[in-house]
Amino acid sequence: MNQFISETLKGKTYIDPRTDTGFKSLFASKEAIKDFVDGILQLKGDDQIKNLNYSFEHTLRFMIPEEHKVILDAFATTGSKRFLNIEMQKADHSFFIDRTILYKAFLIIKGKHEMEKSEEFKMLTKEEKEYKRYEVPETISIWICDFELPHRMDGYIDEWAIYSKEMLNSGTVETIFPKNKYIIVCLPKFNKTVDEVKDPVDAWLYVLKHAHEGDPLPDFGNEVVNEALNRIKIENLDKTTLTELEREMIAKEEIECRLAGAKIETRFEMVDAMLANPKLTDEDISAISKISLDEIKKRRAQR
After folding, report:
1. Angstrom distances, CA of residue 107 to CA of 32, 200, 210, 232, 234
2. pLDDT tens-digit profile of 93-141?
3. Residue 140 CB coordination number (10 Å)
């Protein structure tokens, strides 16, 4: 395997779990996503997730009136009819909050559509269906951000929800719609030492923040986390995974150099930065940016 390891990765124990490839490898099991979500939502006992299905790079498309789409890093549904998306964000964005709202809107519509396709809903009477016409399922968006958030945030985990201004003014801090929830994680604010890691959430965040640094990480006594660490161990990866990671690393270096720290506002700006790199083929750029090969070739011809 050493012959496939690039110079950039040599001497390191793990691939970076904050990259697309690393994130998908780290959470490539139902048990890993369940352990992380149970912890981040503070679910205990019977409230913990029993059944879960998930997929990576899940595309949601809607006609409003022309086609719009978003690509979720990870999309999951639970047996208790929760709909979740988990996003790993390395780069800041001028419209970050707008983006979280847009993704949640698509997630709610997806959940509503799936709810009405369920056998349970189909068995309802016409009157019952009409009664539930506006009901939406519980939706939770989890954003793991490797940058400081645009609003003041003292801790490393925040929760956004819908509140009544009148209730807040009267001293009642309680969401008026608990089925709509955003969990925001700010990795730069997570500064716990190994000895301070006491629960699964902190173990996962410690891995996300420190795995790329090079040294082996300690055993936190969580078998699910240990299995995930083995999945991102460089010595355990196949050539395909390492090649995909190499593409990401080349693209990241090129973008950082060419944009000199500026925020990447669109995938097309990212494409334009990569087109100038002779190491990247059109196929590489398409795979990294998730933009069609035909569109990449068209943009190259216009340069």
Report:
1. 22, 26, 30, 29, 34
2. 778 889 899 999 999 999 999 999 999 999 999 999 999 999 999 999 9
3. 22
